[in-house]
Amino acid sequence: MNLAPNFPEDPVMQRLLQLLHEEIGLPKHKTLRWDTQILENLS
């Protein structure tokens, strides 16, 4: 996964990214930034 240059790489954020990838399968080529929105249909 590509992270924006200013995206925090602390252990909490790394765990969040891991959980998101496991739950919704974030694409490896997607760049995550602070303004990236992740939407999931919960119905």
TrEMBL record:
Domain of life: Bacteria
Protein name: Uncharacterized protein
